[in-house]
Amino acid sequence: MGVSEATYDIVVIGGGIAGVSVTYELTMAGRKVLLVERESQLAYHTTGRSAALFLESYGPPIVRGLLSASRAFLDAAPTVLDTSEILTPRLSLFVAEPDDVQMVADMVAATPLVEDVGVDGAVDLCPQLRPEVFAAACLERAACSIDVMSLHQGWVRGAIVAGAEIEKWYDVVAIDRRTGGFDVTSDSGRTVSAGQVVLAAGAWTDVLGARAGARPLGLQPKRRTMAVCPTTAAIEPFGTHVSDINEKYYWQPEGPNIQCSPADEHPSEPCDARPEELDIAYVMEEVNRTTTLNLRSLKASWAGLRTFAPDRTPVCGADPDVAGLWWLCGQGGWGIETSPAMAASMSGLIAEGRFPDHVVARGVTEEMLSPARFHA
C-alpha cells in the first residue's frame, strides 16, 4: 500500500459527466475535491460517445422530474460555465406502426409537451417517411440536441477555476476505510486520503463499491450502438429526430449523413465497448424499411455502455452501510441531460443534508434515488 500523499474533503471517482458535474458542484459548495479518472482522458467511455437529445417527455416520471429540474441550468450554461449554447432546438418525432398505436396515445396523455400529429403530420415534418408503414405519430416541439462535450468541458473548467484538482491515469485498485475517511490507492501505488468518496464511474461503479466494502447495487451496463451512414435522399442538415415509439431504432440527419441507432441494450461487463456488425445491419435495414433514405454504406460507428440500476431509476445518495461513501450512478440513457439535477442533488446531500428545493419541487425525493432502496 502506498503512502498517503494528500488529504481532501472528497475524492470523486470517474471523469464522465456525472463525475465532473458533481466535482464542480461540491467545489462550488466549498469542499476540497480531487477527481480521479482511470483513463488518459476524461469522458473516454459513455459520455464521450453520447449523441444526447434533451426530451422532457422521455423516461419514467422520476426521470422526467430530473429532466425538468435540469433545464434551467442547461439553458444558463453559456453564462454559468462560459460555454457555447448547450441546447439547440430540434423537433423530435415518435412514429408508431399499427401494433403500437396505443403507445402514442399513452405518451400524449402522459405529458402536455407531446402532441398527436398523425401520420400526415409526421410526413409533412419528415418527407422521407414511408406513410404506408405507420399508423400514428406524436411530436415534442420543445426537444433539443445537446452539445455534450461543450457541457462536459464547461463543468471541468468551472471545477478547476473553483479549486478542484483532477488526476488522470488514476486507476483505483483499493478504497480502504480508516478512522475519519478513506485511503484511495491507484494501480501505480499512489494513495490519497479523503473524508468522503463519491462513486461516479458508470459501468465500473459496483466494482468500486465492493472495493470500499459496500454491497453491490446490481448495476447492469448495457451496450448502445451508433452508426453514421451516407444517404442519397435530400435531407435538412439538422432535421427532425425520428424515433420508433417502441424503441426499435432512431435516426436523425447530421450534416449530409444519417446518424442512427438500433436502440440496443445488450448486457455487458464493464469494458471499452465496441459496435457489432449485426446491430449496425439491423438499424440500416429498419431505416430503409420505414423511410426512403436508402442507407447503403457505413461511414462511422461506435458503441458505449449505458448503466442501469435494477429498477431503471438513477441512484444518488449515501451508502447505507459504509459511512462517507456516496453513489452517483445508474443514469441509464439519461445521464447527460439529468446531470445538472443529479449533481446538485448529490452536492446538496453532502453539503446541506438534503436535496435542493428545485429538484424536490419536481417530485423527486432523496428516498426515490437512495441506494438504500436496494438493501431494504
What order do the helices and strands come in, and which of them pair?
Elements: E1 4-13, H1 17-28, E2 33-36, E3 53-54, H2 61-80, E4 87-89, E5 92-96, H3 101-110, E6 114-116, H4 118-125, E7 136-140, E8 144-146, H5 148-162, E9 165-167, E10 172-178, E11 181-186, E12 191-199, H6 205-211, E13 220-230, E14 241-244, E15 250-254, E16 257-261, E17 266-267, H7 277-290, E18 300-308, E19 315-318, E20 325-329, H8 339-352, H9 357-360, H10 366-369
Parallel strand pairs: 1-2, 1-12, 2-9, 5-14, 12-20
Antiparallel strand pairs: 3-8, 4-8, 5-7, 6-7, 10-11, 11-12, 13-16, 13-17, 13-18, 14-15, 15-16, 19-20
Helix pairs in contact: 1-5, 1-8, 2-8
